[in-house]
Amino acid sequence: MTTTKSRRLPRAVRERQMLDAAVAVFAEHGYHAASMDEIAERAGISKPMVYAYLGTKEELFVACINRESELLMTAVAEEIVGEMEPDERLWRGLRAFLGFVAAHRDAWIVLYRQARSQGVPFASEVEASRTRVVDAVAALLGGAAERMEPGPVKGDLAAMATALVGAGEALADWIADHPDADPEAAAARLMNLVWLGFGTLLTGARWTPPAA
Amino acid sequence: MTTTKSRRLPRAVRERQMLDAAVAVFAEHGYHAASMDEIAERAGISKPMVYAYLGTKEELFVACINRESELLMTAVAEEIVGEMEPDERLWRGLRAFLGFVAAHRDAWIVLYRQARSQGVPFASEVEASRTRVVDAVAALLGGAAERMEPGPVKGDLAAMATALVGAGEALADWIADHPDADPEAAAARLMNLVWLGFGTLLTGARWTPPAA
Amino acid sequence: MTTTKSRRLPRAVRERQMLDAAVAVFAEHGYHAASMDEIAERAGISKPMVYAYLGTKEELFVACINRESELLMTAVAEEIVGEMEPDERLWRGLRAFLGFVAAHRDAWIVLYRQARSQGVPFASEVEASRTRVVDAVAALLGGAAERMEPGPVKGDLAAMATALVGAGEALADWIADHPDADPEAAAARLMNLVWLGFGTLLTGARWTPPAA
Amino acid sequence: MTTTKSRRLPRAVRERQMLDAAVAVFAEHGYHAASMDEIAERAGISKPMVYAYLGTKEELFVACINRESELLMTAVAEEIVGEMEPDERLWRGLRAFLGFVAAHRDAWIVLYRQARSQGVPFASEVEASRTRVVDAVAALLGGAAERMEPGPVKGDLAAMATALVGAGEALADWIADHPDADPEAAAARLMNLVWLGFGTLLTGARWTPPAA
DNA sequence: GATGAATGAGGATTCATTCAT
DNA sequence: CATGAATGAATCCTCATTCAT
């Protein structure tokens, strides 16, 4: 008989199991409602091991955030290396992002819905990453704008990047709740909406509010 | 004798005090970390009263959500009554929305960050409202599209509305964290980004992914 | 039927019950080995009440120390008010001290054996009181020494006071372990030893308490 | 090849390392707060080894007590062998005792503060040794008393010995907390106090150590 | 109506102790 | 001989919720 399930596993393996279980439980119940008991049980291990390897609940949550955050960032970064046009870069990043979310729904839920709703300890961890993304997008938009006059004023870029990232997140969140959704199609739609808009702005066109 | 500091307040007033306190505490600590003790104390009332008036913690949270949600919806609805062009309607709604958030930051935090991150019981409450908004926006976009051929296909509208609403929420969330932000300017920027994009789409233009 | 045991007691009463129970349990098992469960049970109350009224285990322990410490100090202080000869003051204080210990053995055990053996948080609380006592004794000895030349040098007083207090504590500790011991006799013996000295005692000299 | 850092040490050496570590940790944190983990780590050895060599935590603590207790007893005993006057014997024993404490502060803390504050299992171990010391002192005093009439009555001796030992312990404890203290001076002061008495000291009398 | 008093239930955390390798 | 891996059993503490007055 081949022992498919051996006890006494090396630390690295156990840590992965625990993080997997933790991400699943945090995604399902949220940080506070998640219990260390359930995490340990789902990891097929006793509670003290969780504490021994990953520390307190808070540290465990941070470890989850860091791992998933890094995976997400890497997945996107790999897709946008090298020289390319701004729109292509945006498109590729977006596609990689939504693709990752579709493939790791729990990770997204933990990162987006859970981490951000907890107080300072965690929210800031994630918010920092998010800010970097917004900045990168703003830089990307800025790079595109430089070529053409008259472009959007600097001040607008931050807000637009925020809005653009928010739109992406909303699609991601929608994808996380709809397993059958097609991330590539969603990415294309967002590109259509946003790039045509941004491109038009680059021509100097402006939308102005109707007289009140 | 005029009671300068009356005890026996009418029920409606008491309930308002409690809900105000609850919204503040939920916004500050999140649903789970919020304690009924603190809510009662901040409302200047004893705990059993809270239970007598508004029921369990869960019910209290739902009451908060419902009240704030309704206030938000009403604030927006009031601004978009009557006949008007699609872009004006969008603009007005957006401006009312962001204005409300700027004026009621705690409400937004409870509705957006807290309610959505809790499990099924509450998330669905809010998600329902949100879906109605997305549908309304989709209808608005659809209405605009009908007049011009060739417009975006039906299927795209839902995704675009989702993205648009997400962009609005991201700006709202940003405003909630930046008391000095100008909601009207943010609304204008989003209109620029999104309406010019959408308008361009209506002309039949399309953004297509570069050949892989 | 007269209800000898009513529930729903006023706060002050419950606090006393809890402190009594806590002192007993701390005396029996020591700080660490004592469990809040047992304290609550012995106080005839549920654990959350203990936390509500007296705070954490640490705070509870401090509260015990403070209460018993104050009772002890008061008992001694009451006996040594007014003008009197140094040896009479010492004798009276000693007698009151050992009498208190005989009457409150648990209190002594908590103050002397438990509090002093715990780390900084508590040891220092008690050590401060103890230092005040040692200083007072040193002052008393110093006062007596001033009248006569050549007396012990200043530097010696601190050490002697320390030794004297230690001797008193050892007797107290012995009394705490021997319920039948006579505190007054023990006090008299210590006075003899310390005021006259063993070598002097061998000559047949005796110290006798002043007529009360 | 000469192993500069040998692993396989003889059992006796290992046990010494462990006991040293244990004494240090018990002195620092107290019996309960001390963790086997820290002891093992400070001994530079894995936990199972500690269990294999010295048994459970309780047994380990007893082993510490026994070793240090024996060292202390031996140090004192060596100083008081042979014929000598009672006061010289007392003086020498006292000096050896305080000298040992000054040189082994951790040992004293474990023996005096920790062992005595734990429940029956350990307190009795130490109490037995202590009783032997008190008895020896009582015998010493009794021996001195026999030569001269009228001396202190029998009953008094036990109490006086207890007090005397307590005074010595108090000085020892003070020394343990004051590394710069001079144990020999402290011993001399205690001899003065106890052998001559404070009242007698006031007359200018002094006890002086016999020429070494 | 209003509240101080009271608790059942559950969650995080730690630790002494023991296998399996 | 030696140790990393593993856990059962407590313990502290908190909180939503309800009585009795």
From TrEMBL, chains A, B, C, D:
Please indicate if the UniProt record lists Transcription regulation as a keyword.
Answer: yes
* Alphabetized GO MF terms: DNA-binding transcription factor activity; transcription cis-regulatory region binding
Q: Tell me what this protein is called.
A: AcrR family transcriptional regulator
Keyword check for Metal-binding, yes or no. Answer: no
Q: Which UniProt keywords apply?
A: DNA-binding, Transcription, Transcription regulation
Q: What positions does the domain HTH tetR-type occupy? A: 12-72
Q: Which GO terms describe its biological process?
A: negative regulation of DNA-templated transcription
Pfam families given for it? Answer: TetR_C_46 (PF21943), TetR_N (PF00440)
Q: Which residues bind DNA?
A: 35-54
